[in-house]
UniProtKB/TrEMBL annotation, chains A, B:
Keywords: Transferase
Origin species: Clohesyomyces aquaticus
Molecular function per GO: glutathione transferase activity
GO BP of this protein: glutathione metabolic process
Record domain GST C-terminal: where: 112-252
Stored Pfam families: GST_C_3
InterPro entries attached to this UniProt entry: Glutathione-S-Trfase_C-like (IPR010987), Glutathione-S-Trfase_C_sf (IPR036282), Glutathione_S-Trfase_N (IPR004045), GST_C (IPR004046), GST_superfamily (IPR050213), Thioredoxin-like_sf (IPR036249)
Protein name: Glutathione S-transferase
């Protein structure tokens, strides 16, 4: 159990994050949005021992949804008391859908219609990179052990490092460059922080943990991304406080795993 | 080149779909949204020989975006003349982001805030299944040939058929069941067609092409999904007309490929 994430704002509904305890995982993209904006939320899985039961119920193979909500495929999910039909809790799932819902409410969604859709698009692209990272250690079967698919993982990770990482990093470098007048290399869209920034930042941070050699060798190729964007987002007030807190969970056996054999060999 | 997709409605802006010519691919999810709602669009890649140049320009490795738009990672993209900054065209990308943009405008996004987010969530889950289908024939490297990763594809496809297909189908069966009072097994959310329905329908249709043995063996396990939902969406007026037109492209070497060795062996 980590320290409660209760923070200053109380003009918002009491948001509840439903995600596995003990790992950053896909829940981290939602946590970062709350933390960056200083809006309070309850991290159900991490703040009580019984919390995990709610997450297991959410994804049960026979669930027909609760409180009149449509069923959810997998965590993370967001529950918002009072916002559902007939005053019941609203429950939504899928990381990017939750970010889209919160983006407007937390002031992280861009300033106008165009920016709003670019923010969502770029967040989705960062989440694609997140998924591809997961697949480097699980290229064949999500539910089997890494050791059972290590041979394939070595091949997948080589392609990821050599083809996918430069493609994604090169793209985001161009997004920052195209927005440099407004964003100064610090923001992907417009002149302020959005959930596209926090989402991409988390993926870059996870990649630094999982592929330290590869990232160290690549950083110089993408000066805006690693020279300006990454350190700048890390210093955003809410993010900086969060990273220094016990609420920030260490990487371990989730999406970002450090298997030295999958990294660039020195 | 296929026949022009110009249809009745002219109260909408002249939407332009930017996607590779000749294959359904991820562009098909956007086409189905337009066709289901009877709103006209131009399919740039398929309606002129020169169209592909615009798609290549969109994803060029040195693109900084056009008309003041943020760069796009990959097609599909949607261009909407007059809707961008300063009256220029707006350009957005990522399938689910485009569907989210169009959903409100085409009447395919659900009736209220709760339904709107469930529609987006379920569409995202159907698109996850679409991506996992792609990975059955390309588990190691997107840019290499199937024949170069066939051994791994056999393993990936076995897990997909045995673990992933029943998980996704079981989930969508429950979504239909939970909404049966309103949706009658025909709609995932609420009492009318949404882009979650058209998106899931397309994935099911593609899977029937790619894994005919597996699907034939599985259909009876999911009576709402295959007995009601699939045939019902296929009969929706706009969809039915579209499927009978030359605009509907055949599956070939895109996401949905029929490799008999990856299917269930009889």
């Amino acid at each position: 159990m980590t320290e409660p994430s209760t923070k200053k704002s109380r003009s918002h509904p009491p948001y509840e994050l439903l995600y596995w305890p003990g790992i950053p995982g896909r829940g981290e993209f939602i946590r970062l949005a709350f933390e960056a904006s200083g809006v309070s939320y309850t991290d159900i899985g991490n703040e009580s021992k019984e919390g995990i039961q709610q997450i297991l119920a959410l994804k049960a193979d026979d669930s027909l949804g609760a409180d009149g909500n449509s069923p959810a495929f997998a965590p993370p999910a967001l529950r918002i008391p009072g916002e559902g039909k007939g005053g019941k809790p609203l429950l939504i799932y899928q990381t990017s859908c939750i970010l889209s819902y919160l983006g407007d409410r937390l002031g992280l969604a861009g300033e106008d219609e165009a920016e709003k859709h670019w923010v969502l698009s770029h967040a989705l692209t960062a989440l694609d990179l997140n998924n591809e990272t997961h697949d480097t250690h699980h290229p064949i079967a999500t539910m089997k052990y890494y050791e059972e698919q290590k041979e394939e993982a070595l091949k997948k990770a080589a392609d990821f490092r050599e083809a996918r990482i430069p493609k994604f990093f090169g793209f985001f470098e161009r997004v920052l460059k195209a927005n440099k007048d407004q964003g100064q290399g610090k923001y992907l869209v417009g002149a302020k922080l959005s959930f596209a920034d926090t989402t991409l930042w988390q993926v870059l941070d996870g990649l630094k943990f999982a592929f330290p050699n590869e990232l160290a060798a690549r950083e110089g190729e993408f000066p805006l991304l690693f020279g300006t964007f990454y350190p700048s987002v890390k210093e955003e007030k809410g993010i900086k406080e969060y990273l220094a807190s016990k609420r920030r969970l260490p990487y371990s056996q989730g999406i970002f795993r450090h298997y030295p054999e999958l990294d660039r060999q020195k």
